[in-house]
Specification:
Blueprint: E1 2-7, H1 14-24, E2 27-30, H2 31-37, H3 44-53, H4 66-73, H5 77-105, E3 110-114, E4 129-134, H6 137-148, H7 152-160, H8 165-171, E5 174-177, H9 182-196
Parallel strand pairs: 1-3, 1-4, 2-3, 4-5
Length: about 200
Amino acid sequence: MLVIGLVGGIGSGKSVASAMLAELGAEVINADLVGHEVYEPGKPGFDAIVAEFGSDVVGQDGRIDRKRLGATVFADAGRLDRLNAIVHPLIRTEIERRIGRAREKGDARAVVVEAAILLEAGWRSLVDQVWVISARREDVLARLATQRGMAASETDARIAKQMTDAERRSVADVVIENTGSLDDLRARLEGLWGTLVPR
């Protein structure tokens, strides 16, 4: 079973690509969703976040309010580092557990770990190959304006906080240029699935 780390910048098309790979038969582990789960009430991440950032980050429903937490940490690099120090080890442990479970089940040809921060967080050793989704800045700006209503300045600010495309490419086993239509992307992924994923 091949374990693929699917990475790329904001708006590059990671989620679309991982959905297409799931259609081809991959089991997808979405690190963002795992990240939300590790600080659900009753989980160690919840208590650690409240201890670090205070009860103001807890919403009326008793869960961590991600918007409030985001406003707290993204304005202060030190606070963001502290949040990452809490949640990244928890996310890694859960991803490792899910990969292990997939290996035991043995019914998927590949596991795809969709994780924007896989390289930054030092999780390269979790995967066999790194597949980078790359998109042109103008396509990213248009995509995020349409899908999320984000202004170009907001998108550029997010991009500036991420690893650069050149840095991702330098460690990639595969680079997937997401510069055409959805059909073009699907065709590229089908080709990679057919040649790189063991039967």
